[in-house]
Please model this.
Amino acid sequence: MNDIEPIKRYAVPGTLRFRRIRISVLLIGLTVFAQLYIFQPILSALRDYYNIAHTSASLAVSTGTVGIAIGLFFYVFYADTLARKRLIAISMLVAAVLTLLTPLATNFNILLLINILRGLALSGTTAVTLAYLAEEINPRDVGVAISLYISGNTIGGMGGRVLATLLTGWYGWQTMALSIGAACLLMGLLFTQLFPRSHNFRPSNVAPRIRAQRMKIFLSTPYFLMLYFVGFTILGVFVSLYNYMPFLLEGDPYNYPHYVVALIFLMYTVGIFGALIFGKLTTRYPSQLLLEISLLLYIVGMGILFIPSLSCLLCGLALTTFSSFAVHTVASHMVSMKAGIGKSSATCLYWLFYYTGSTVVGYVSGFAYFHYGWNALLLFDLTLLVLVLIGARLFLTKRFIPTENFYLPS
Model:
């Protein structure tokens, strides 16, 4: 029994429905990254406020991704039993309310608990957005639509981090959290008015046993497993750079004030171009080629970061940011387009690995930085990227590409 309707009513460019989808996915992307990494640029402020260790402060970032990972594991089994729009709307609104509650955290453990709960809420948006786009957008335009969603992530991540740094420096982190939470709540309310309901999806009760079988197949298929490792690595490396570069720039020999360090998060604008350019290129060139090119650019950018001058640090950060979002756009497109009737399960697993990488790599690279220095962090991250490139060359070739609806139980 196939759980995809045979007649498709796709949203196409130029229609009101397509424009509403574009605006809505931008809103989703804005709220997810603005809140998920709200504490990333102010780890030193949290360290001082709660009187905790350097590496413990990074838990303010990683616990949010732990929450998302837990939620995504749940949605692997149950995403298709819930209406897409309702799930995303509730997730956005609950996450915003939790952000508004963070100033009430009287100790660091309470803050971490709120972060986990907010991650759980945000996982609802992450679980089904890519599946929705693959279902509702004409296949030839899906790459562009995904790039818009990732651009929303980029803008949200950039704006949230810049505002977080500036507002924390001027008014304290509690005022910052209230401001970002209020903005995300407004965007969630706007989303509920704009987002079109699904035309090509109806909630269905696929047995958990079938979901588990599909998940097992995805995790044992080299093509998908490799793409999951790609997602795990690219966000982990990206988060590690932006987690610890503020520590580098605030310390010797740079000693920049917080309002100057905040400007590095404007580099996210470069990521927008990476997502949009490579999203459009997916309609013209093989995805594997684009993935390998963007990974190579990522590696080159990491190499530049070894040069200890400010101009080289900024150039390297620009190239790694561009490449990270380019890789993410191509990899997520490859997953969503090849998963067949298991789109929700496949994309949930991709996001699960993606955010787990943020937690694991972000934490381990922090250990490397605080014990062995900036170059040790870069060497660790660079090794992961080289392994991913080799793996992509080996396991994303034509003989490993699955056919549509490949042997998935229904």
